[in-house]
Every structure is written in structure tokens, then in C-alpha cells.
Amino acid sequence: MAQSADQYLITGTIMSADNTPLSGATIKILNSNRSILSDASGHFSIMLKGLRNQMSISYIGYENKVVYVNSLRENKYNIILSPVKTQLKEVEVSTGYQTLSVNHSTGSISTVENKLFNRKPSSDVISRLENLTPSIQFDRRAGDDNPSFSIRGVSTIYANTQPLIVLDNFPFDGDINSINPNDVESINILKDAAAAAIWGVRAGNGVIVINTKKGYKGQALKMDFASNLTLGEKPNLFYTPGMSTSDFIDVEKKLFESGYYNYDENSLTKNALTPVVELLIKGRDGILTPQQVNSSIDSLRTKDVRNDYEKYYYRKSIYQQYHLNLSGGTQNLTYYVSGGYDRNAYNIKNNDYTRYTLKSAITLNPIRNLTLSAGIQILSTDANNTTNGSYSATSGFQKLIYPYAQLKNDNGSWNNINWDYNTTFINAAISNGYQDWTYNPIQNMLANSISNKNIDNLIKFGIKYNILKGLSVDIKYQNQKISMRQKAVQDESSYSARNLVNQYAQVDASGKVISTPIPPGGIIDHSNNDLTSKTVRAQLNFDKSFGIHYLNIIGGFEVKEEKTEMTKNKLYGYADKDGSSYGVDYITQFLTTPMNIYLKIPFMDQSNYLLDRYKSFYANGAYTLQEKYTFSVSGRIDESNLFGVKTNQKSVPLWHIAGSWLLSKEDFIPHGLFQMLKLRASFGYNGNVDKRTSAFTIVSSGVSDITNLKYLKIESPANPQLRWEKIGILDFGVDFSLSKSRLFGSIDYYIKNAKDLMGYAIIDPTTGIINGGGTGTFYRNLASMKGKGIDLDLGSNVLDKKFKWIINGLFSYNSTEVTKYENPTANISNRLNDGRSISPIVGKPLNAIFSYKWAGLDPQNGNPQVYLDGKISSDYVLISKSTNTDNLVYSGPALPTIFGSVRNTFLYKEFSLSTTISYKFGYYFRTPSISYNDLITQRIGVADYSKRWQKPGDEKITNVPSFPANNDPLRDFTYQLSDVLVRKGDHIRLSDIVLSYDIPPTVIKTVKIQVGLFANNLGLIWCANKEKRDPDYIGYFTLPQPKSFGLNLKISY
Amino acid sequence: MKKIYLIGFLLIVISCKKDWINVKSQQSLFIAQNLDDYQALLDNTDILNGSNSAGGIVPALGQLSCDDYFENEPYWQYVQIQERNIYLWNKDFYTNPTVPDWSYPYRAIYYANQALEGVSDITPDTKTKNQWNQVKGSALFFRAFCHFQLAQIFAPAYESSASNTQLSIPLKLSSDPNIVSVRSSNSEVYAQIIKDLNESVPLLPDLPTVKTRPSKASALALLSKVYLTTNDFSNAKTSAEASLKIYSKLIDYNAVDGTAAYPFPPLNDEIILEALMINRYTLLIYPVISVDTTLYNMYEETDLRKTLFFNNINGTIQFRGSYESTYNCFAGIATDELYLTLAECDARLGDISSAKRNLDVLLSKRYVTGTYKDNITDNDTLLRKIIDERRKELVFRGTRWHDLKRLNLDPKFAKSIFRQQAGTTYELKPGSIRYTLPIPQSVIDASGIPQNDR
């Protein structure tokens, strides 16, 4: 090929290690702006000038490679790229006080790096961690969208249970859900004392360190845009099998015949009756013929209000997210700027969430050895919620909506339903001058709203000066201001506002309304919280190698003040059109209708503040010999203004010692067997804070309803022995990676010892220290817990050819048991619950499932029977009072002891497909079954009512008790709390499927585009319980997260 | 450079200031330390007087056990097991380990003791002397009031001959939770109650500014009640007279509007001290219960109480005469009771004319004007009449149980009371050990004190 004097042609092929040509790889000529792409067979050719050149070759999923071109030597290059390694790289981890290279770290720290963190979208940070890192367990049994989560099991009983969240070096005081996950670079989870003890009294529940994105020195301007859309299905209201409407109506008829509704019918409080009961009354009183009654009732049997709720109350959810960031840097400056917009339309109508985020971070080196940094983060969120009128809403008499209610009538308007008061009373009221007193669930939902507008401003500055080589001083300051504005509006058309106006209306002797102390109109509750938190930290860092010795020491102190000011007020008679409201008489006691008791108008205005101050001294030192052996120690003293505690008890020294051994650098380990092999061991203490109690008798003030005089209430009795909770953690770990990443990961074994835990001691009520129910309780340090566990985080490149297959497996085992809890009450019924409430029992986990031993149904009458002192019994009073623990069977823990996930990732060319299968084992739950007391008093029915015992012989085929002759709650408790309803929680679930495609750069040059599809919450693959109930969602009204599907788009420039 | 060291130095200085870390962490939480605070502790009407929402203060177990009412059988299914047991005077009746009838009065005593211990550390000057006296007097009063109410339920009726050996309630004279409860004897308990009250009388103002606060009038009234319970009629008379001398207003029922659902306003003219009966029971609520028919028939037609106290709804009788103006029961101290105590003491001490005069003062305000007359001449008949009037006037105030226990000691007045339930008749004989109710199990468990035999 011809070649001029100063120009010459370079050709070549770009391939992967298995000789697959890589098409579309970018070949950039450094020192010029030129770049080209390889063709379909991996070939490229380019004319170059000058003797020496450098080509930088990049390809998604492969390590960049720089090739030196010397035209005199060669003009044909075969370039082999190696894939990006998925094993533990020589990465750095952050504890919030320092960043350490993994090799020098002695702690147990899990890292979620950027790519994994962004595997699938979400609007919050925390929920993404599920199934990405071991030891984090999410508990959704309460059905919240914001589940509770814990690291390595629970470490406290009643004190704060939330892990500490650190955002770029400082604890984050705002709403964790408002941080934009698109700004997150990586996450470190500090699990043992070596990693977390530096956080002192706030580290007891583990620490999650969030590191946000930054610009890098010398980095050209880079722009990333990400957007996604997630569509969610409506929740399944039929998840808990409810009783059939027809069965429900039959129960009402049966109760009517027994005279059950006479009380409500004649009640002075004008209790509501259901349409069926009203029809039956009309039949009884001869207003309707039996045929008319029956045909009207029968027409209701096919209705199911849950259908209406699905149709009119719920909708499909739509979540949208947009995020743009710019970053870059020069030799002396780095910058990062981003903006985000999120909009979530939740699956309840009118409920939505909007978030704007703005973030910037700048570092500057104005002179040698000096680094200045500054950052701003603005989070603005606006959430609208209302759950008024929901399917699980209950009336003033704790009754659920009846199953044959219809929310919409045939002419298209929303229906009234019978709710608090009976129809006769409501009809009479309107003619006496009361406001319309009817209840309409959908209209009420539309007429109520709660909006939460939060603005969270965070500003930080830092100065770092290198005094000598290896020695630097670092001062950081952070100021966070959060304004939270809540406005709860009960529109004048809302039932709740009309009901309150009516209840306080004053009448003359003939019953006509003569005045309305609460004026007709809307009611607005404002609640404003303003949080200001300031932290200053000064720290000395020493970091230097002396030959084979390496020393890293930090020491510093930190002061923090967090102040929350709260105000509340309530406006009555609010008119939306002009914003006016009325003053009301808060002093007079008014005779209320129909309760017939004297009450004052609710007064809610309030102002208060909370002020927390902390002062901490800390130091951490690590010494490494020959890059193999590392030894570390730390110590921290925290002081705080924890109220009333004597100064000498405020300070808790918390510390750790740890060591690690980088075995892979030893000569006796065959070279090439391990890329990395490290052993770790650590022990130390983390602390936990509970601010609810004090060394002195603490009082709060209020105003008496009777006298309007100020009074004091004793909030907590004196407790001179008060101390902080301490959690000791012993951890042994191995981090390893076999060559070629055939197998890599980490294994940890730990033992936790939590002592001085706070708990409620049952004491003699004669002391007068009692709770509202009259039980003598004293909240103090009294408990200990012991836990142990294993965390496994493993990965393997199973196939590493043209087609790649990577398996990542997470496995966590945690078992925690109470080792000390002074609780003298022996009544065993206190131990029985659904596993969500806490009843600490020595030798058992905090959340435990205990039951009565089921003895079948009584063949005579279908009464539930259990074993009491070795004999079959249906004496429910005696059963409930038993103190003999032998009468209980222990099924097991109520929270999983084994959990984890398996993620399979398949890569082929530009396609990537990954799926997560998660599992939970080793726990138990109660499955719902009919409780006649709940059915009769609250209208909560369960479908297995139809399987109830009805005649002798049925006890052989069913365990569902017969309809009781008399409503007896203890009979229901005995059945509900027997082991016949306990199920194993073990299950395997298909959590998600994510598919992505990188558009080859041949299509659009210099721009990387990735499109993806994902599906979440795809349901159970296998579960141990035969009812196929999802053990993560066990409450009667708990709804499983609906399936959701989405697509996302990422553009990088 | 210098700047950095300066900032660092400043930080060290700031962080070493002890005051910085000693501020309180919540505006609304603090430590009670001055007289205003201790007065405010005793002004906690939820706990010392018992509000509707806080559940009351005066034990209701006596009311539940007495013969003012009967349970309406169709509503039996609404009655919890524990209340059924109470109603039928069963041997063993608590299904709940804790009982508010025990713990609420002891909580009030805990507040009173906190205030007493607080003021004992304060030396009053001339300016604060009155307030100091009032706090101390009020605390002593509340402690005595609660100990007295507890003794009526959980201790046997006071018998002077046996009072040294009668096992009574634990006396709580300190707020220290580490002091283990011990049962005192009846004589110790009543001696302490009388001591506390006698000590409080000179400290308290004649009348309170609000009716939730104790006063000389209420302390003397309570003293008369305590003395009556111990059958010390002359002291009961002296105290009642002294109280009435300070305050003796009665409501003329002729002027009361009977159309209101609850005719008597709260904190009305007859009330000397407000206190609410514990309201956590179904057996206080119509139509689960109905007023005893025999009792209802005891009211004459010209007796205004018959209509102001009761609604006759198809033959079941609803009580609506509470001085709380709700279905809650008033269990505080009022002037009407003082007139009845005075009349009884007069009769027992043989002063017929004074007894009749005092009864007349009350009843002329209860009957349609001009219709009340009596022509009783013998002492026995008069005493019976006074005791009947006591029952009629103080219905649903919890006093019936106190009176049953007290009067059963006298064979002349002793009587059995009966319950009918599901075709079975239950009888509670005078002097039955079941007049002393069991102590809650949690107390027995925690303190090891002996349980009452049933």
C-alpha cells in the first residue's frame, strides 16, 4: 500500500480473548480528536501522522486498552481486549471518616458498585439494596411500601432499629427516600465493629454509607441521561380469601334472629345497621312482606365490594423518572452537576409523589497541597396521600364496610353507605337543621387530602491541607435544613368535617339546631416541622509507607447539633374560595350528638422543639506489614445531651481491634491459584441510643379539659441506673477470588452480643408506675440478646466466551435469641401473637411463633380444643390464664433465619439478560382463618367459614370451629393462636427479570445508548404452605406488591 | 494554615464547654422542681380526678358488685368473662392480670407522693407559704382519698375489735418503686388515712378555686365518710358539720330541666370535689344493665329523682342522674351525702330532731315543693328511713357497696343480695368473705403479698 512521507496507514483487528471479533469498538487517537469504530468483523484502518502515536481502544464490557503505535516497527495490530472483571477489584471503600483500599481494610464491608446498583430503577436508594448484598433483610409483613430493614438481624428490642445512613461522610438527617438514586456512585455496608465502631453510639444497627457521584481530575466533560417508566398493576384485594357475601348475609340473618342487633337498633348512640338488617327489621315490623325482604336480600348476595374498590378506588400505578448529570475535571478542578425529576402516580387514586432534585459537587486545588470542596443538594418532594374511605377503613364503631356495599350506583353517582349512624337518625337530622350526615366512601376519599411538601437543602464545605507528606488536616462542615409542611384538608363536603360539625351542633328543646360551635366548612390541619442540623468535623490524617511498613492513622472530633421545631394548628370553618376560617370556643364543654357527652372542641395548636447535641472524639489506626498483615484499632467517645443523664454516664467508649492477612501474597500459596485471598478477624462494640427515658423523673405539660389549668404528666420515672445499649460483634471473614474469576466473593461468620438492652419490666402496679391499661411497667436496661450468623457473597464466571454467564449468589443466615429478659408475669397467653409484635422470651428469637397445641374440634359441638396441662380442654378462660409453659408449642422464628438470592446474568453481544431469584427459609407465620368475634363485631370474614364444623363428624374433615352459641372472643383466640394455623414461611420467589441492549456505537457515534426492559415482583415460584399464601405479606389487609413492568433508557455522551 | 489551626482551636474550646452538652433535648419535657410544677402535678385531672378519656379514678368494682342494678339478659353476650365473674360474685374472677381499679388509684398516690417529696425539699418563704400549704395539703388529701377508696374494695369491712388483724391494702407512703408492697392492717390503713386528712385540713383553703382541687371542705367531708365507715359517729358528725359550715349548697330539683338527656351539669353546685368512677366496664352502661326494679319502686311519685335520675324505657330503667352529665358515674364528694351522713349520725347518737331536720333540708329539695313530709317518731324507723334515703340519693356513686359492707356488720341491717342469671339464683350473704375482692394477680406475682380468700 502506498504511503506518503508523513502519513501512513495502520490496520488491525479487535478481538476478545476467545478470538471473537468485536464490532463497533472505539479506536481513539490520543493527542488528536479523531476516533473511528471497528467494522462488523472487528477490522479497522486509519491514516496516522507522526512517528509515534497512542490509540485508546474501548468497548463496552471490556477494559480499555492503550496501544503504542510506532510506524517504523509495525502497521498491523491485532488487539485483544479483556473483559471488565466482575470480581473484587482493587477498590476503595468508605467508612464515612476515611476511604481505605480494600487490601488495607480489616472490616467486614459489602460494596454495591455503580453498575449493580443501577441494574434496575427505583425512586429510592434503600429498596435497591434488596438482593444485591447479603445480611440486609427487608420485612414487608406490615404491607408498607417502605418496609423496615435490618443488617445482620435485630440488635435492639425497643430502641431505634434503623441502620445509620451516611451520605458522603455525614449522617443524613432527612428522609432517606428522597435521595435520588441516580446520584449514587456506590454503597458500602459496614457490618462488623472494625468497620462501624468509628460511628460509636449510632452504629449498633449497622451503617450504610452512600457515596455520590463526582467528577474526576482530567476527565473530559461527560453527560449522562437516564429515564425510566414503570407500570404497576392494581393490588389484589382478593389476596386474603374473604368470606363470601352470601355467607355473610346468612350470618347477619342468624344474628338478627338471635336478637343481636337489638342493641344497635335501640342504642342511644344511634349505631348504624347494615341494609340487610334494616330489611329484616322492616320484615319483622310488617312494613315489607317476607317475600319482599328475601328478594331484596338475595339480590345483594352476588355483590362484592372488593370489585368496586378495585374499579373505583385503585388504578394502575405509573412511575416516571428523569435524570441528567454533567461531570468533568481539569488538573485543579472537578465538578459534578445533576438534576432529577420523578413522578409517581400510586395505585390509589389521587395519591402521587413528585420529586425534584438538584445536586452539585466541586473540588478545587487553588494552591499545592490545599483542596477546597463544596457541595449543594436540594431535594424537593411533594406527596399527596389519602387513605380515607379505603377497604380497610373502619367506622366509629370499628366496623368494616359490609361486603355487599356498592360504591357506585346505576346512574353513575357515588353511593352513600350505612356507616356510623342509622338511617332513621340521619334522615331525621337533616330536617332538624343538621348538615347532611350520610357517608359516601369514594366522595369522602375525594374530599380528603393530605399533602406533604418537603424541601431539604444540604450545603457542605471542606478544607484539606497536606501539612507534610502523608500528614493532612481535614475540616468538614455540613448544614442541612429541612422544611416539612403537612396540610391535611377535610373539605366541607367531606364526611369527617360534616360529622364533626353535626356532633357539636347545639339544639333547642324540640331538637332543632340553633347553633354550630364548629362552623360548617372545611377543616384544615397544618403541621410544620423545621429541622436544622449542623455538623463540624476536624480530623488529622496520617498515611505513609516506610519501606515494608505502612501506617494509616486518623483522629478527630466532631460536634453536631440537630434541632427540630414543630408547630401545629387547626382551622375550622375553612372556605377554600377565599381562605377564610372561623375562631371557635375551645373552653366550653358542648353536649355532643348522638354521643350525649360533654366535649370540648378539639384543640390542636402546638409548638415544641427537639434539640439533640452530640460531641464525639474518635481515632482509628491501621498498621500494615509487607502489604500482608494489617492490624487496626479504633476508639470513640460519644457525649450527648441525652436528657437528665449524669455526665459521667453520658460517655460511652466504644472500640474495636482487628487484623487481616493477605494470604494471596504469601509465597506458600501457589502462584496463580488466587487473584486474592484475605483472612479477617475483628471484635468490638457498637452502641445504640434510646432517648425515651432518663435518670430523673421527667414530666410533660398539658392543659386539663376540666379546669383549663396547666397540668403535668409523669412521662418516665426516675432511672438512675440508665445506660446505653452496647452491641459486641466478633467477626471472622475471608475475601477471595480464584484466578480468572472462576469463583470469587466473601464469607463472614459473626457472633453478636447485645447487652443492656432497654425493655419493659413488668412491675408491681402498686408502685403507681403504670401504662394506660393499668399494667405496671418500667422501661429500663434489662435485656440481652445473642446472635450469630453467616454472610456469603459468591460469584462465578461460569462461561466467559462469546456467550457469557455469570452467577452471583447471596446467602445469609442469622439467628438471634433473647438471653436475658426479666419478665415476671407468667401468663402464657402474652407470648402468643402473629409474630409481628414482640414478646421477648429467654432462649427464643425476638419475633417468635408460639401456639397452643391443637387438639381438634369437639365432636359434640365443633368447639375448638387445645391441650391444657396434658388434657384436651375447651375451657377458654382457664386456657387464657394458664401459666404453664408446657401448654405451648414453639414453632420457630417469625423472621427468616436463612435468606438470600441467586442472580444469573447472561451476556451476548450487546444483549444482557439477568434474573433474580430470592429465597427465605427457616421461619413461620399464621394463616388467617375465621374469627367469629371479628366477624360479628367488625365484619371481618374469612372464606374458610364455609368449611366450618356444622354437624358431628365434620371434625374429621375440618379444623374450622363451629359458629358459636354465644360470641366468645376467648374461644376465637384459642383457635387463632393454636398451632393448627401455623405455616412454614419457606419460599422461593422470582423477584425480577432485567433485559438490556446497548445500541452499538456504529449506529450513533460517540454516544452510548442503553435501553432496557424489566419486570418486578413476579411472584412465588415455590412456597411451603399449602394455601399458597405469600409469607412476606401476612396481615389480613396486607396486600402483596403488585407486579410491575418498565422500560429504561440511558444515554451517555 | 494559621486559619485552620485557629478554627480547630475554637472547635476544641466550644466542644469542651460543659453547658453546650447539658441543654434539654425536648422543649416539652423537663424535671419538676418548683411549687408551680408540683401544683401542676396535682392538677393533672386525668390522673387525680379521673377524666372520661383517662378512664376514671375511683374503683368501680364495688358498683359492679352491688345491688343498684341487674344485667339485662339479652345483652349477656356483650359482657366480658371478667365482668360476668364480678357480677356473679364468683370465687375467681380476674381474666386480666391487671385491674385499673387497683392501679389507677395507686398511680394517683404515686403523683401525690412525688409532690409530697418535692415540697419537702422546698422551704417556703412568706410569699410562697400559701401555695406550699396547698400543694402539701392537696397531696395528703389525694393520698388519703385513694387509700380509702381502695380499702373499700380490697379490704374487709372495718371492725374496730378486729382491725389490728384484718389484712388490708398496702399503704404507699413513698414514690420509690423499689419498696416492695406489704399489706397493712385495717387499723393501720384507717389511722394513716385519718392522719393524712387531719394534717391536710389546716393546710388547705376553705374552698377550692376549681372543684378538682381539694379543700378544707372536701377534706372534712372525706373525714366524715371515713369516720362513718369506722362507725365513729360522733367524729363523723363533727367533721360533716364542719364541712357543711364551709359549704352547704344543695340543688333544688324543682328547678332542674328534665328534658335534657342528662339533667345535671358537670361540676354543679353540690359537688365539693370532682372524681370519676372507673368507666372501663360494660356493666355500667344501659341497656346492658337496668336499674334494680325494687330500688326504682322505692321512689315515690312526687319524688323528683324518679324522673330526673331515671328513664323508664319499656320497663327497663336507664340511670341518667349522674353528676357527670354523661353515662359516666360521679364518685366524688358532694353536699347531699354530707346531709345524709349527718342525719345518720344524729339518729345513731339519739338526736331525732336534728336527724329529721337534716333529712328535711335535703329531701325538701328532692320532692315536688311542699310534698315531702314525714311523721316518724321512733329512732329505729328513722334510721332505716335515712339508710334507704342514702341508697336512693347516692345511687350509682359506688357508695352502695361501702354501705352494704358497713351495715352488714349490724344484724339489724344485714341482708343478702341476689342475682338471677340464666335461671340460676346467686346469693351474697352478709359478712361473706366475697365482700372483699381479690387483689390483681400481677400484684401478687410481683410482691408476694397474700391474696384475699374468697
Morphology call of chain B: globular
- Uncertain stretches of 5 or more adjacent residues of chain A: none
Round the Cα radius of gyration of chain B to an integer and report it. 25 Å
Structural class of chain A: mainly beta
Distance between the termini of chain A: 36 Å
Keyphrases for this structure?
heterodimer; A: 1053 residues; mainly beta; 22-stranded antiparallel β-barrel; 5-stranded mixed sheet; 14 helices; globular; B: 454 residues; mainly alpha; two-stranded antiparallel ribbon; 11 strands; 8% strand
Describe, in plain words, how this protein is organized in 3D.
The complex is a heterodimer of chains A (1053) and B (454). By secondary structure, chain A is mainly β. Chain A has 14 helices and 52 strands. In chain A, the strands form 12 sheets. Chain A has a 22-stranded antiparallel beta barrel. Chain A has a 5-stranded mixed sheet with strand order 10-15-16-13-14. A 4-stranded antiparallel sheet of chain A has the order 3-2-5-6, with no helix packed on it. In chain A, helix 5 runs antiparallel to helix 6 (290-300). In chain B, a hairpin with a 2-residue loop joins strand 7 and strand 8. In chain B, helix 9 (186-200) runs antiparallel to helix 10 (216-229), helix 11 runs antiparallel to helix 14 (335-348) and helix 14 (335-348) runs antiparallel to helix 16 (379-393). Chain B starts with a helix and ends in a 7-residue tail after the last helix. The interface between A and B is large, with 82 and 88 residues.
Short characterization:
Chain A has 1053 residues and is mainly beta.
What is the topology?
The complex is a heterodimer of chains A (1053) and B (454).
Chain A: E1 7-16, E2 26-29, E3 35-37, E4 43-49, E5 52-58, E6 65-70, E7 76-81, E8 92-94, E9 99-101, E10 109-112, H1 114-117, E11 136-139, E12 148-151, E13 164-167, E14 170-171, E15 184-190, H2 193-196, E16 207-212, E17 222-232, H3 245-257, H4 262-266, H5 275-284, H6 290-300, H7 305-313, E18 317-329, E19 333-345, E20 352-364, E21 370-385, H8 423-431, H9 441-447, E22 448-468, E23 471-490, H10 495-504, E24 506-507, E25 513-515, E26 522-546, E27 549-574, E28 590-591, E29 598-599, E30 606-625, E31 629-640, H11 647-650, E32 652-662, E33 674-688, E34 698-703, E35 710-716, E36 725-738, E37 744-762, E38 777-800, E39 803-820, E40 848-852, E41 854-857, E42 864-868, E43 871-873, H12 876-881, E44 888-893, E45 898-908, E46 911-921, E47 924-926, H13 932-938, H14 969-976, E48 982-984, E49 987-999, E50 1008-1016, E51 1020-1023, E52 1044-1052
Parallel strand pairs in A: 1-7, 13-16
Antiparallel strand pairs in A: 1-4, 2-3, 2-5, 5-6, 8-9, 10-15, 11-12, 13-14, 15-16, 17-18, 17-52, 18-19, 19-20, 20-21, 21-22, 22-23, 23-26, 24-25, 26-27, 27-30, 28-29, 30-31, 31-32, 32-33, 33-36, 34-35, 36-37, 37-38, 38-39, 39-45, 40-44, 41-42, 42-43, 45-46, 46-49, 47-48, 49-50, 49-51, 50-52
Helix pairs in contact in A: 5-6
Chain B: H1 2-16, H2 18-21, E1 29-30, H3 35-42, H4 45-50, H5 61-65, E2 69-71, H6 81-87, H7 100-120, H8 129-154, E3 167-170, E4 183-185, H9 186-200, H10 216-229, H11 233-246, E5 271-273, E6 289-291, H12 293-297, H13 305-308, E7 310-313, E8 316-319, E9 333-334, H14 335-348, H15 352-363, H16 379-393, H17 399-407, E10 417-421, E11 424-428, H18 441-447
Antiparallel strand pairs in B: 2-6, 3-4, 5-9, 7-8, 10-11
